[in-house]
Amino acid sequence: MARKKKDDVLSEDKPLTQQEKLFVDAYIQTANIQEAGRMAKYKMVDKQAYAVFHRPRVQKAIEARREEMMFRLGINPERVLAEWSKMAFSDLSELVEIKGPLVLLKPDADLSKLSEIICNSEGIKYKLHDKKAALDAISKHLGLFDKDNDQQVKGIADAIREAAAARKKGSEQ
Questions:
Q1: What pTM was estimated for this model as a whole?
Q2: Which domains can be identified in the chain, with CATH numbers?
Q3: Ordered DSSP codes for the chain
Q4: What pLDDT does 35 receive?
Q5: What is the pLDDT of residues 123-170, one digit of tens each?
């Protein structure tokens, strides 16, 4: 059996093999290199899965699948920041009103701001999302924790600042 040349295996221009396609599909489902290697039926999973994952054409295929999935689901940085913002800046008083001993949900309450509604013999308990975690995520995403920030998000932070400045300028006119 002829061995594959290293250049063929590492080439970005060559189409994915059937096994590499299986690996990409499995990786998109699991986000786990070893599990993707098992699902793609690689014999020496530990070594082969890691090597396959780092092939430029496989990385390119994974990135393309991620982008396709994000587009299909409507996931983009602005939407993610909006959801984090909702969690970080929510206020229970916007969601409930107190009438005597009762704490009632307002009719127009945005329930996505709540992480839990617990009903038990003691009554109903409303719990917001973890504000600190949401604020940390926003801060990291915007590069406010530069030394801890592993992401390259300067472009996003600049875009948000520019959009805010444009909105402010538009409201002044």
A1: 0.57
A2: 6-73 (1.10.10), 76-173 (no CATH)
A3: -PPPPHHHHH-SSSPPPHHHHHHHHHHHHH--HHHHHHHTT-SSHHHHHHHHHTSHHHHHHHHHHHHHHHHHHT--HHHHHHHHHHHHT--HHHHEEEETTEEEE-TT--GGGEEEEEEETTEEEEEE--HHHHHHHHHHHTTSSTTT--S--HHHHHHHHHHHHHHHHHHH-
A4: 95
A5: 888 899 999 999 998 988 888 876 554 555 555 666 677 777 777 776
